Amino acid sequence: MSRQDSKSTPYYPKSSKTTYEISAPFSEIMGEQFDAGQFGTFAASRRSTRDFLPTPVPDEVIEEIIAAGLTSPSWSNTRPFVVAVAKGEVRDRLSAEFLSRFELVKSGQGEGIIGKIKALIRRKGLPTSNWLVIKKYHKDLLPRSRRIGKELFTHMGIDRGDKDARDDFWARNYEFFGAPVELFLFTHKSLGKFAASDAGLFMQNLMLSAHSNGLGTCAQGSVAVWEDAVRKEFVISRNYSLLCGICVGFPSDSDVNKFEANRISPSEIILPEKSMANR
Question: What does pTM read for this prediction?
Answer without folding.
Answer: 0.82
